[in-house]
Design brief:
Layout: H1 3-22, H2 24-27, H3 43-46, H4 48-64, H5 69-88, H6 93-112, H7 128-157
Helix pairs in contact: 1-4, 4-5, 5-6, 6-7
């Protein structure tokens, strides 16, 4: 990793953590819209520095709003896996963003039900764990597959295509 990659990693981590904390009322809980997750698809443009950046950003944000060591570890791991999958599947970006959203929804929703009551999803009575997974997956789809996908498409349309570098 060179200085440019390290700087990019730090910038993305700081931006991710800042967005989560500043938008805290909607960034945490059983029904959340982590707008910062729109940065996860940047891994398709910037490669491993973005993968590491959104993972460190999640670690910092989840530590700031301490819920449990489970959230710190698994929330960070969810971002790492989602970003890495989007990086690897960048040729099919929208599909990759959907897969990344499902990873986060399954992992984070898979443990958040231990800490929060089930969210009300369209008035349906669902098992607690399933309601939480569904809620987090829907919010991740909004943040990653809609906002993040749009962000990457806009950056590409502006001429940015950073993965042409030899080290990614």
């Amino acid at each position: 990793m060179n200085v440019k990659d390290l700087t990019l990693t730090a910038l993305i981590a700081a931006l991710y953590a800042t967005l989560v904390v500043v938008l805290a009322p909607i960034s945490y809980g059983p029904i959340q819209l982590r707008a910062a997750d729109c940065l996860i698809p940047l891994s398709s443009l910037f490669g491993l520095p973005a993968v590491v950046g959104v993972s460190i950003g999640a670690l910092v944000a989840n530590t700031y709003y301490f819920l449990s060591p489970i959230d710190i570890v698994l929330g960070t791991l969810a971002n790492l896996i989602a970003a890495y999958l989007i990086f690897r599947m960048r040729g099919r970006l929208l599909f990759a963003c959907i897969i990344g959203s499902c990873v986060i929804g399954g992992m984070v929703g898979g443990y958040l039900w231990l800490f929060f009551p089930p969210p009300d999803i369209f008035g349906l009575t669902l098992p607690v764990w399933f309601a939480m997974i569904l809620s987090i997956t829907i919010s991740s789809l909004i943040a990653i597959a809609i906002l993040g996908y749009g962000l990457v498409k806009a950056l590409r349309a502006s001429g940015l295509n950073s993965l042409s570098r030899k080290d990614n």
